[in-house]
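DM from R.C. (forwarded with permission)

"hey, sorry to bug you on a friday — could you get me a structure for this? deadline for the figure draft is monday and I only need the backbone to look sensible"
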Amino acid sequence: MSLATPEGFRKNPSLVWQFYHYRRETALKAQPNPAHIALSSFSLPSIRHQIAPESTFTLITQNVDGLSVRADKQIQANEPPAADEQPRLIEIHGRLFDVTCTSRDCDHVEFNTSSPICEGLSGTEAHVAEGDLDPEIPITSLPRCAKCGSLARPGVVWFGEMPHKLDEIDEIAAKADLCLVVGTSSTVYPAAGYAAEVQHRGGKVAVFNLDRSKGDHDAEYLFLGPCEETLPRALGFTN
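My reply, with the result:
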């Protein structure tokens, strides 16, 4: 939590970038699991309407690892959606692979999956994994904005910053009759409050978690166990 703040980045951009470079490298090696695939499948109207006719669905994720996007691409490769059938995905906390300029005169954002993102960070992921960070890396050797050359930062939402598309999400929550809460401790707001909002308006809540979490005693449906097992079954993608 000391690193995932604007203040932490201003104080020590080298330390923050080493941490996020480690996360980038880890995420690049990961693959979507069956829970990601089930949600991406359910996001496509042509698939979802076989299970829930005439329904709408929006996946709102707090994850920044891009695995939901990659799952969408896997599903669409097998079943290309029509132009008006694109899955609705909102990455409320930004994207780990977005690189954002820190200059207010620029604000350029670029999607970048380079490994390493810059030579100055090459190999530092091993030190982070061992809890032994490299000495401070000069700012000039950290990721730079591709447009203006200023220092860049990870394109994630840090503590104290405003999550993305809150107005749009509020409209979705106001109309939803079912909220699926998947793999979260339900402690980070505003995301943690959407289930209660759906319930308050008469909707139902289903929680999928490995262990008990805050607020799941209020849910109408509770599925405990690995989400990659429970979620596909609940959505009808396995026997």
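R.C.: lifesaver. Strands lie at 58-61, 88-91, 94-101, 109-111, 152-156, 178-182, 204-209, 221-224.
me: no worries. Residues 75 and 183 are 21 Å apart (CA to CA).
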